[in-house]
């Protein structure tokens, strides 16, 4: 594990930002994220986490709107257009602003986003270091209805990040039920893992706690708060002339301020027990210090990538090469 430098706190302080974005509105959501980052940093946070696709909101209509999955549904296509127009692109000004926030605050920042590459959207987690550099991870398998909006990532983005307190990594939602993805991450000796969810329901808590126990690492289970009012207000902030899209969003239950996403953010220790119990149904900046000594204490009994592995029996090969459908070669290399 990388040792803390003299200028770094001996123990990190982790913050989970559990609040609603400005739904579908990327510029406004980036403004809000930066405000929350600066506030958390002033309170002593050194690692700051947001939920899955927080920029600019998880596409809740996929599960909640009765007609969202109908073939050639105009409202669903309009919502995809809005997502595409409000997705980040590698190297763009929105990511640069978040990188600047990391530099100003000296914090590690992990935030979920819709990312556009060509005509395809990805569910992507961006992890920013205090020097302004960042890595990104694209969700390997969009889950069920999510395949209506996102493409699949590949092994080239199954990355972790070095911090003064050890390795920082993340997975997105149901990736925590992919045994080989977990094994690949455990092999990178995570000290701190961000588990991003749209909302951390009961089974998501189970997966997050199991990951902490199996990986012998701290897990921040990051969820979001979102109501139908948040959805409709965010949509209205874009001033779109898209009545069919509004019809799809308006068809979702429940009404008003009743919550679609209930949060459930929590912090879990390397023994699988809660350091901070789940918080539901309200916006909160959940913060707690991490006792790094707990990592070694728990690894005495279990290190799934080390003394509790059997490389003479089991072997996992991870393809980290980017998978490109079209590769152009010049005449000299044909």
Key attributes of the depicted protein:
Nitrilase/N-carbamoyl-D-aminoacid amidohydrolase, 9 helices, 13 strands, six-stranded mixed sheet, 334 residues, disordered N terminus, alpha/beta, seven-stranded mixed sheet
* General form: globular
Strand content: 15-25%
State the CATH superfamily name.
Carbon-nitrogen hydrolase
Number of strands: 13
State the end-to-end distance. Answer: 45 Å
Q: What's the architecture, going by CATH?
A: 4-Layer Sandwich
Question: What integer is the average pLDDT?
Answer: 95
Report the structural category. alpha/beta
CATH class: Alpha Beta
The main β sheet shows up as:
7 strands, mixed
Encode the helix/strand succession as letters.
EHEHHHEEEEEHEHEEHHEEEH
Organism: Iodidimonas gelatinilytica
GO molecular function: nitrilase activity
Domain CN hydrolase: 12-292
InterPro entries: C-N_Hydrolase, C-N_Hydrolase_sf, Nitrilase/CN_hydratase_CS, Nitrilases_CHs
Secondary structure blueprint with pairings:
Layout: E1 13-18, H1 26-42, E2 47-49, H2 61-64, H3 74-85, H4 93-105, E3 108-117, E4 120-128, E5 134-138, E6 161-163, E7 166-172, H5 179-186, E8 190-196, H6 202-215, E9 218-222, E10 225-227, H7 228-237, H8 243-250, E11 259-268, E12 274-280, E13 284-289, H9 293-299
Parallel strand pairs: 1-2, 2-3, 7-8, 8-9
Antiparallel strand pairs: 1-13, 3-4, 4-5, 6-7, 9-11, 10-11, 11-12
Helix pairs in contact: 1-4, 3-8
Domain CN hydrolase: 12-292
GO molecular function: nitrilase activity
Active site: 52 (proton acceptor)
């Amino acid at each position: 594990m990388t040792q803390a430098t003299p200028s770094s706190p001996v123990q990190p302080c982790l913050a989970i930002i559990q609040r609603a974005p400005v739904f579908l509105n990327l510029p406004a959501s980036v403004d809000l994220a930066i405000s929350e980052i600066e506030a958390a940093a002033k309170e002593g946070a050194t690692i700051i986490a947001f939920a899955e696709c927080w920029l600019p909101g998880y596409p809740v209509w996929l599960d909640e709107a009765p007609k969202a999955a109908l073939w050639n549904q105009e409202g669903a296509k309009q919502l995809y257009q809005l997502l595409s127009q409000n997705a980040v692109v590698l190297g763009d000004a929105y990511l640069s602003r978040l990188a600047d926030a990391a530099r100003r605050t000296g914090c590690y920042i992990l935030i979920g986003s819709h990312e556009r590459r060509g005509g395809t959207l990805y569910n992507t987690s961006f992890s920013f270091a205090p020097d302004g550099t960042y890595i990104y991870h694209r969700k390997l398998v969009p889950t069920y209805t999510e395949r209506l909006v996102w493409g699949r990532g590949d092994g080239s983005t199954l990355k972790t990040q070095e911090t003064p307190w050890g390795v920082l990594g993340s997975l997105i939602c149901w990736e925590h039920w992919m045994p080989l993805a977990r094994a690949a991450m455990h092999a990178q000796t995570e000290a701190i893992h961000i588990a991003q969810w749209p909302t951390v329901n009961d089974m998501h808590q189970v997966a997050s706690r199991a990951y902490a126990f199996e990986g012998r690492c701290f897990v921040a289970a990051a969820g979001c708060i979102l109501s139908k009012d948040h959805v409709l207000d965010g949509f209205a902030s874009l001033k779109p002339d898209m009545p069919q899209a509004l019809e799809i969003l308006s068809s979702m239950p429940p009404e008003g301020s009743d919550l679609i996403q209930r949060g459930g953010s929590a912090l879990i220790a390397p023994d699988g027990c809660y350091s901070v119990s789940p918080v539901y149904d309200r916006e909160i900046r959940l913060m707690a210090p991490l006792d790094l000594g707990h990592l070694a204490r728990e690894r005495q009994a279990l290190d799934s990538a080390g003394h509790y592995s059997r490389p003479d029996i089991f072997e996992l090969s991870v393809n980290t090469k980017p998978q490109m459908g079209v590769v152009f070669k010049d005449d000299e290399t044909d």
